[in-house]
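Technical note accompanying the year-one report. For the benefit of new consortium partners, we illustrate the data format agreed upon in the data management plan: each record pairs a sequence with a structure-token string. No post-processing was applied to the example shown here.
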Amino acid sequence: MFLDPPEKVSQTQITLDVREIEPLLQGPSMAIKPWPGATITLKDGRIMYIREAKLEEAPMMMDYMKKVMESDHDFYDIVGARVYSEILGWYRKRLKDPYTLVGLIDGQWAGFANGRLFNEDINISLHSMALIRGGRIGAIMYYTKAYYAFEILGNEEWWATYESYNGWHRWGLGMAQPSYPWPEYQHELGGAKVYYVTKKYWDSTVKNYVRQMVGSDLVFNVPPDIVKRNEIMRVPEEVLV
């Protein structure tokens, strides 16, 4: 848009350093407590280490999600596309206050969970995925980020929505999640209905429900050898969703 200035000016062109623009596009970040890292024992006895993803791991994670996009069952095509964009948004600093968690078994990427903070009270759940079959890894990753929201970040509400029937059945119906009136409230994943959990409901009911489904619990006293074994992440050779 161009308008003639209403006053004589000494400079008709102004050059901006992109470093001056970036703070406006990126926006200020909240002070988010980091995920401390934890282990959990799977049904078959294997130990999965859950840590924050490293920014330099984002390209390999996105390459894997490109393959997930090609899966045309159970809505994995749209999940893959959206997770790709979320990882890219985190990587390019175009996603507000994100967190990205990965579950690793001896360095192999086995689970994924991410979300972001809308504000100090509301935690927006984005996606949870199991990259290898068995072990209830998807449930573990969902439990992990809900635990992170309520127990570590001190959030008051957890907002979720569902793309697949399985996700809605396991979490929306299984956790008896109430929903806000639509369209007054819309989740950012396609403007879908917002299902939510409050801190009070988490403490009274949901935490125990998900813990029982997982069959084990998070252990935050992580041995140094497990941290070392999972320092370098490898993506699975096949897509097993």
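Partners are asked to follow this layout when depositing records. Residues 33-160+217-229 form a domain with the Aminopeptidase fold (CATH 3.40.630.30).
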